[in-house]
Amino acid sequence: LLAERRGSPLHNLPDIVMFIDDVGRDNVGVMFDIWHSWCEPDLHDRLREYTPRINSVHVNDVRVHERSNFDRELPGDGRAVAAPIIATLIESGYEGWWELEVFSDDGTFGNDYPDSLWKLPHELLLERAKAAFDATYAQAQRLLAESPARATPKD
Fold it and tell me: From the CB of residue 16, how many other CB atoms can be counted at a distance below 10 Å?
């Protein structure tokens, strides 16, 4: 699922699900990407409706000031939108794969950001990424536990 702000013709959950239904294959699902979809209108309501169609989730976070398509944050950093989204997915019954996806251009895609995560030694990046995911997932669990009615926005 790609973002409208990135030029995708299919940029929201209802449209991508309708497209998949039109294809008519039962082995095709939605790979949901937090970075692309965090600002989708009514996102949490749509996640509640379409979670059964989601088969995997790209977990990342969004810089407060985005610099390019290849400049994402570890979960919990930047705008910190990942935990509420993960909480909504869990609440809605999501049991699929969580895939940590962090683009952080080191010049590979044309922007040599001095603070690129890709410039870290691989072992350190993996350690930081796992810790960020674990902390964000735990925060999502806390959001669910704190409110039986659910603390995510009702869009």
Answer: 22
What are the distances in angstroms from CA 153 to CA 30, 69, 77, 106?
A: 22, 26, 19, 35
Nearest C-alpha neighbor of 98 from the set 108, 85, 112, 117: 85
Q: How far apart are CA 117 and CA 99, in angstroms?
A: 17
Distance, in Å, from the CA atom of 137 to the CA atom of 154, rounded to the nearest integer, reads 20
On whether the CB atoms of residues 62 and 79 are closer than 8 A, the answer is yes
Task: Name the region of 154 (left: φ>0; alpha: ψ -120 to 50; beta: rest).
Answer: beta
Give yes or no for a contact between 44 and 17, defined as CB atoms under 8 angstroms apart.
no
Q: The pTM is what? A: 0.89
How many other CB atoms are there within 10 angstroms of residue 64's CB atom?
Answer: 9
CB atoms within 10 A of CB 114: 6
Cα distance between residue 39 and residue 8, in whole Å: 14
Question: Residues 51, 80: contact at Cβ < 8 Å?
Answer: no
Up-side HSE of residue 108: CA atoms within 13 Å toward CB? 11
Tokens 């970075």 correspond to what residue? Answer: 35
**pLDDT tens digits, 22-44:** 999 889 999 999 998 998 889 99
